[in-house]
Design brief:
- The chain is built from four helices and two strands.
- It is mainly alpha-helical and 90 residues long.
- The radius of gyration is 15 Å and the shape is globular.
Length: 90
């Protein structure tokens, strides 16, 4: 995970206190749109996680046009979020 920060030249590694693992965190929206999403488009995820990535990309597209600032856009994001990870129907 630590090498992703250097390789992608964005984000940061946050260790989990008391554990030997951590999280790779990217908070800059421009990095998400210009680096993270194109990376996973070039090197696609496998299995069910590809569906979560597609939802993540949809939310980024909504936010990129300021849709998250409208009631309808916010509602759409909430619906997408409700269906990700454990909320996804097989």
């Amino acid at each position: 995970m630590k090498s992703l920060v250097k390789y992608l030249d964005c984000g940061r590694y946050e260790s989990v206190l008391g554990h030997d693992h951590g999280n790779y965190v990217v908070t800059r929206f421009t990095d998400i749109c210009n680096i993270i999403i194109p990376f996973f488009e070039k090197y696609p995820l496998q299995g069910i996680k590809v569906e979560d990535f597609n939802d993540f990309r949809k939310v980024a597209e909504i936010m990129n046009v300021n849709g998250h600032l409208t009631q309808s856009g916010l509602k759409e994001i909430r619906l997408i979020k409700a269906g990700t990870n454990r909320g996804r129907l097989s």
